[in-house]
Amino acid sequence: MTDIQASAAPAPTGRRERKKAATRQAIADAALRLFLERGYDDVGIREIADAADVSTTTLFKHFPVKEALVFDQDADQEARLLAAVRERPTGQSIPEALREHALHHRLGAARRDPAFVAFFELVNSTPALRDYQQAMWLRHSSALAGVIAEESGLPADDPACAALAHFALEAPRVAYDRADFRQAVTRAFELLENGWTTLASPGH
Fold first, then answer.
1. What is the predicted pLDDT for the residue at 2?
2. CATH 1.10.357.10, applies to 1-197
3. What are the extents of the domains in the chain?
4. How confident is the model at residue 171, as a pLDDT?
5. Which of 2, 34, 88, 89 can pair with 43 through a Cys bridge, CB separation 3.0 to 4.6 Å?
6. Where are the beta strands (DSSP E) in the chain?
């Protein structure tokens, strides 16, 4: 889980893949439970491995650094984000596709869940997790900018693509505390849509 998305990852199909996914999930679940109970800095890697009934070697095969235990869906989140642009319906603009992704997969669905609120507070109160989250956010933003440029027929380093990616990722976080999350997100994306139509070629 992360504070920017709470959707579950697609279930793996093969037996080996399912076993690996189950082990990874067990490790992440044990880590989060211990972090929420005692605080991130007061829980060691060996404790997490013991709680998940795996070796520390196995733990590090799935999570190379401690912070990654909290953001276990990082890669899946980025893949879904990029797919929202690449696989959008014919005639749907990129801002529209990102708005729909935000409304269905971002903060709104989970923000009043007590477990999610506890997770959100854990991240915000832990400097190491905030730093890791920011680095993750920048990676997602960079990857999204690249896909936007590719889909729009624009140069890979086009600043408009980087700006759209940045603001599209930021909009749901800005709307997090609003009573009507959907309305706030829609309002933000109206600005992105109207601005973007003056920059992107027709059909994009």
1. 45
2. yes
3. 1-197
4. 87
5. 34
6. none
